[in-house]
Design goal:
This protein has helices at residues 2-12, 17-28, 34-49, 62-67, and strands spanning 14-15, 53-54. It is mainly alpha-helical.
Length: 82
């Protein structure tokens, strides 16, 4: 599931509030595979670089940031309309 949400974010250039929430829920419930964690790290890098924008306000969902700890820079972004 995470990989398909990340793929969608790359296709649209935007991580929706709903997708970010779902990713956070899957991570919190530990319902993921190792490839999903790779996708989270890739997504986190894309968010940090500005390649993908966030629809949400504030910092990245806590679960998303925790699982991408190798890139601990908090992402502060201006909300956009996806």
């Amino acid at each position: 599931m995470i990989r398909s949400l990340v793929k969608s974010a790359f296709q649209t250039g935007c991580l929706s509030v709903a997708s970010e929430g779902l990713i956070g829920q899957v991570l919190a419930n530990k319902g993921y595979q190792s490839a999903d964690l790779d996708a989270v790290v890739t997504l986190y890098k894309a968010l940090n670089s500005g390649q993908i924008e966030r629809e949400a306000r504030g910092d990245v969902t806590r679960s998303l940031a925790e699982y991408a700890q190798i890139y601990p820079i908090p992402i502060h972004s201006t909300p956009i309309a996806c």
